[in-house]
Amino acid sequence: MLLRRAQAAGSIRAGLRLDDIRLLIAGNAGVIATETDDPAAASRRYVTHMLRAFRARPRPAAAPHGAWRMAHGAWRMAHGA
């Protein structure tokens, strides 16, 4: 339910599934088990990278109306219109 709410809010990628979260947890367990120097730091790094990968991509902002007019005017000049 939390995953669906985050997806509906646009915070998390729409295609993310509960299985992906399970893989994150399993992968993190592997990082902790194999890191000998600083397992906690390695775990934080791994989880940070995974959470970034799960984020929804921001939508590009619409160009301001003035920018569109400038681009359109430049196109018209270039094409002799």
Overview of the structural elements:
The protein is mostly helical. It has one domain (2-78). Helix content is 67%, strand content 0%. The chain is built from four helices and no strands. Helix 2 (18-34) packs antiparallel against helix 3. 1% of the residues are buried.
Number of strands: 0
What is the rounded distance between the termini?
A: 55 Å
**Total of helices:** 4
- Biggest sheet architecture: none
Our Rg estimate from Cα atoms comes to 22 Å
- What letter string, H or E per element, gives the SSE order? HHHH
Q: How many structural domains does the protein architecture include?
A: 1
Chain-averaged pLDDT: 85
Helix and strand content put the structural class at mainly alpha
Strand content: under 5%
What are the segments in which pLDDT stays under 50 over at least 5 consecutive residues? none
How much helix is in the residues?
55-70%
Which of globular, elongated, flat, extended, rod-shaped describes the shape? elongated
Main attributes of the structure:
4 helices, elongated, mainly alpha, about 80 residues
Question: Can you lay out the helices and strands and say which pair or pack?
Answer:
Elements (H helix, E strand, L loop, with lengths): L1 H7 L9 H17 L4 H16 L10 H14 L3
Helix pairs in contact: 2-3
